[in-house]
Amino acid sequence: EIGMRGDPDDDSNLEPRAPVVTVMGHVDHGKTSLLDALRASDVVAQEAGGITQHIGAYQVHLASGQSITFIDTPGHAAFTEMRARGANVTDIVVLVVAADDGIMEQTVEAINHAKAAQVPIIVAINKMDKPEANPDRVKQELLSHDLVVEEMGGEIIAIPVSAKTREGLPDLEEAIQLQAEILELKANALRAAEGVVVEARLEQGRGSVATVLVQRGTLRMGDVFVTGNEWGRVRALINDRGERVEEAGPSIPVEVTGLQGTPHAGDDFVVVEDETKAREISEFRSEAKRQSDMARSGRGSLEQMLSKIKEGEIKELSVVVKSDVQGSQEAIVQALNKVGTDEARVRVLHAGVGGVNESDITLARASDAIVIAFNVRANAQARDAARRDGVDIRYYSIIYNVVDEMKAALSGLLDPEQAEKFLGYAAIREVFNITKVGKVAGCMITDGVVKRGCKVRLLRDDVVVHDGNLKTLRRFKDEVKEVKSGYECGMAFENYNDIQVGDVIECYEIEEKQREL
Ligand code: GDP
């Protein structure tokens, strides 16, 4: 049986495969509408009466006989989450930009996520049916993100479309096909199957169900497989039209039942010889995961990146920059682009105005990057994600310090024994004017703990307005050592009085790390 499938390492059986496409863009620019409209253009589905099933990915069969596979979970969160798990499933990104709205914040995020993954971009300028549609403006705006469309002498294909009137959809499909030909996408269908989990869930009556995108080989009924830390034996295969099928080849998405547990989106999926082997691998992986979870903290820290650069593992220090205003963002990016030596340089993956969000952390994790927060803070979800995934968020309030620290980092001068440790948050509820002391903030500790003499950062509307030291920490007039979450206290700051009700105080300390033996 194994012999009939061919040698897994034998690439002489490479055949063209369908491109796998992810649609990204700003909210409300028409990702879902476009995916629906493209799906409705499937010639096979039309014959079959258009019965469709949502399984997280689907194939469109074109009149030409060729097919395109679309990942049906739009947005860069899913895209980057999968990439963070090591799965580069997407061959081509279709960037949807509404012709009336133009490039917006999440469009820029999508562009940078696609660039970080080095996936080619095709732009779909959507909503062309609207009277306000202005495709030329969109093309101009693309230019400022280094996406030069063909009409302007570049290589980016931009197709005007309307998900509503279906105008331009065949052109978009043709552009995808063209790009796929350039990429020369091929796979061996004759070997044991390997793929990626696109979606997975536990369903009553069916057990764990996973949508698997087969990347190589052919998946068949009865195949034994390992996926993430789980394993199973294929009980049933259901295609994107809800039909039972016997097998699925490269670039074909299928729903798989027969799993012993529920894997995660982005987990690999590999067919193995038998159950003994499958059990052995999944047990080994579970144990390895337990150990790596324990060793994980600090995985994405600046220090770790630097040691990787020293060992020649990576050549670039990748950063995600978030800042308070456009001006400082531009200045930082410009300065960072000049930092570096022949051995290593800084690469800005994404820069934006506003607080650090979860999407920034996912991007950083997927790309081994650190996050630079300039006069902005990370929201709660982002902080949790960063702590969980060991992504380093570094806060700054002076541009010179950002540049200087990156320079020092790259030339190996950074003091690796110092690191910032988050302590807690306090909210200012009242401001008192006290003679000889100055202004005192009446606070409620909302998170963690505040310690006497700790460092403080004052945040107003998520922007850092002051970075300094705590002068006094009092409860009922007494100076105290620490105040925990849920308690009130009074705080005064060294050389700083400009405090307001509603300000948030982030408390932290500089931790001297122990030398590793
Ligand atoms: P998503 O958030 O990017 O998935 O956007 P949706 O597909 O949900 O679309 C957002 C809104 O734009 C909906 O009200 C759609 O009906 C509308 N829309 C999407 N595509 C078009 C289009 O081509 N023309 C017009 N006029 N409206 C569209």
TrEMBL record:
Domain of life: Bacteria
Keywords, ordered alphabetically: Cytoplasm, GTP-binding, Initiation factor, Nucleotide-binding, Protein biosynthesis
Positions of the Tr-type G domain: 16-184
Localization per record: Cytoplasm
Keyword Manganese: no
GO cellular component terms given for this protein: cytosol
Keyword Protein biosynthesis included in the entry's annotation: yes
GO terms assigned for molecular function: GTP binding; GTPase activity; translation initiation factor activity
Binding locations of GTP: 25-32, 72-76, 126-129
Family listed: Belongs to the TRAFAC class translation factor GTPase superfamily. Classic translation factor GTPase family. IF-2 subfamily.
Task performed by this protein: One of the essential components for the initiation of protein synthesis. Protects formylmethionyl-tRNA from spontaneous hydrolysis and promotes its binding to the 30S ribosomal subunits. Also involved in the hydrolysis of GTP during the formation of the 70S ribosomal complex.
Entry protein name: Translation initiation factor IF-2
Residues of the full protein shown: 374 to 890 of 890
